[in-house]
Every structure is written in C-alpha cells, then in structure tokens.
C-alpha cells in the first residue's frame, strides 16, 4: 500500500528461494504498506468513495487500501496476481471468521482481473491500482495488461485510478534505489507515463494530483526490511547476493538517518484519474 512501492512480480522468480515469502509478506503488511496511506486517502476523497461505490482493487496486496474503502461504505473486490501470502493477510483483515464483522459483499481473488468477473455482480464504478509504476523495469507494461481485462468489468464512465512515482528529484527513495540496486534499478518515472498507460487501455484522462508520502521508519533495520519487501531490489539480489544488497541499502540510508535513529525519506507520488468511455 502496494507498491513504497512496487512489489515483487513473477518475472523475479530466481530469487524466490532466497527469501521467506511469508516473512516478506509480513514485512510489507506491518512496515511498508502504510507508507501510501496519504495517497489512498487523497484518491478516495477526490472520488467520494462511499456506499454507492463498487470498487475493484488491482494488486490489492494485504488489503489496507480495500479496508480503507470499506470503512467509507464501499463494496469491495480485490485481485492479487503475485503473492498468495499477501492475499492470505488480506483475507485475515477483510474476511474474518466471524461473518458479522466482514465487510458486506467483500471478495478477494487470486489471479487476473478477469477472475473477478461475476455475472451476478454489477459493473464496478471505481478501479484502483495503488501499486505505483515508474521504479521497476516493465511495471508499466504489466499494469497495462491487467487494465485491459479490468476495464471490461467496469461501468461506462467508471473512474480508473493509476498511480506512479513522482519526479526523482522529489523522491528520496529513488536515490536509495539507484544507490543500492545500481544497474538493476528500473527506469526513472517520466512525466506522462500514467497518461500513456491510460491511452493504451482506451481510457480518457480526467484529472490528476500529487501527494506527499514520506517513508518513515523506526530505524535502519526496519527501513531495510520494509524496502526489501517492495521488490525494488530483487534484480540486484539476483545479480549479486542478498548480503551485499542489504549492506549497500543500509549505507544508502545514512543521509536520511535522524539523530534519534529514525529514518525519514520525503517522497511525492502522482495519481491519474481516467474514465471508461
């Protein structure tokens, strides 16, 4: 709360054996996901998400953004394509054993957006992708592929929200990624990335915004665990080894270390609202 934050994708399979996927999912859920709360809140407020909203969350991860939409009264469906461990955590949050406490009509699906299709369910009025693009090679292409099947499930005029990293000079975490991931880091975000993705999916841009999402951690150990859970350093781990990446990542955090030992990295994220024609 994705992507923080671009979480691991299937292309990064070589290093799966080197990590504990359950521990990684917990680090994402407990440390990293909350960093994007200001972005999620800004989008929900702009779209007036509420009781009349039927929301489809792409890359729902461990479900924090869905939980926030549900708290506003929305009927929610989440799709997670990469991590069954994250989806298991989302189910704990959103589909507890006591049915009386579960959000009405909540659905969670592992697979592609098409797997969320249900002839009995009305078309979605809002589609969100809170896994920001622009800091991992190929992330825009993957989002575009998911959007095409998601748009088919949305009502005419539905809002589709895409998110991305802001300018590198305004994202301290971008510098950390470049320093620790080196040649394995993805291309930097471009100004019109989100508009290009929307255009290729046949969507009509209808406004955008920027939101401050600082990454704050209790200390360097917490920061390293949270950042590694995003998947941004998977390429570097596969090319070298985890110990070396952890060492370089820890060193790259030094400029953002405060006197009290906490880590604080200011970041700007961008969102685009597009409409289904």
Low-confidence stretches: 1-17
Query: What topology, given as strand order, has the largest sheet?
Result: 3-2-1-4-5-9-6
On the 0 to 100 scale, the average pLDDT is 88
> Main β-sheet, in a few words?
7 strands, mixed
Q: What string gives the helices and strands in order?
A: HHEHEHEEHEHHEEHHHEE
Number of helical regions: 10
- The end-to-end distance, rounded to whole angstroms, is 28 Å
Large-scale geometry: globular
Q: Given the helix and strand composition, which structural class is it?
A: alpha/beta
Strand content: 15-25%
CA radius of gyration is 18 Å
Could you characterize what this model shows?
The protein is α/β, with parallel strands linked by helices and 277 residues long. Helices cover 35% and strands 22% of the residues. It has helices at residues 21-32, 37-46, 64-71, 84-94, 139-151, 172-181, 193-200, 220-228, 234-239, 242-252; strands at residues 54-58, 75-80, 107-110, 124-133, 154-165, 204-212, 215-217, 263-265, 268-275. The strands form two sheets. A seven-stranded mixed beta sheet has the order 3-2-1-4-5-9-6, sandwiched between helices. A two-stranded antiparallel ribbon has the order 7-8. α1 packs across α8 (220-228) and α6 (172-181) runs antiparallel to α10.
């Amino acid at each position: 709360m994705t992507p923080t934050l671009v979480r691991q994708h299937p292309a990064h399979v070589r290093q799966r054996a080197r990590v504990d996927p359950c521990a990684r999912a917990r680090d994402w859920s407990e440390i990293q996901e909350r960093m994007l709360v200001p972005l999620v809140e800004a989008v929900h407020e702009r779209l007036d998400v509420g009781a009349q909203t039927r929301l489809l969350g792409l890359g729902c991860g461990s479900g924090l953004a869905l939980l926030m939409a549900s708290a506003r009264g929305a009927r929610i469906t989440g799709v997670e394509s990469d991590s069954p461990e994250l989806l298991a955590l989302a189910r704990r949050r959103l589909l507890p054993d006591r049915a009386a406490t579960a959000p009405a009509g909540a659905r969670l699906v592992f697979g592609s957006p098409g797997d969320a299709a249900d002839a009995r369910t009305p078309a979605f009025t809002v589609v969100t992708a809170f896994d920001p693009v622009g800091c991992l090679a190929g992330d825009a292409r993957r989002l575009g592929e998911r959007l095409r099947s998601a748009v088919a499930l949305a009502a005419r005029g539905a809002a589709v929200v895409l998110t991305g990293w802001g300018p590198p000079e305004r994202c301290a975490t971008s510098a950390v990624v470049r320093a620790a991931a080196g040649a394995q880091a993805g291309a930097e975000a471009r100004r019109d990335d989100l508009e290009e993705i929307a255009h290729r999916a046949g969507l009509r841009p209808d406004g955008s915004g920027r939101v401050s999402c600082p990454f704050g951690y209790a200390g360097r150990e917490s920061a390293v665990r949270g950042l590694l859970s995003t998947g941004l350093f998977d390429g570097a781990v596969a090319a070298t080894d985890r110990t070396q990446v952890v060492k370089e990542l820890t060193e790259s955090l030094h400029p953002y270390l405060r006197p009290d030992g906490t880590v604080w990295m200011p970041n700007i994220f961008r969102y685009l609202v597009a409409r289904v024609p």
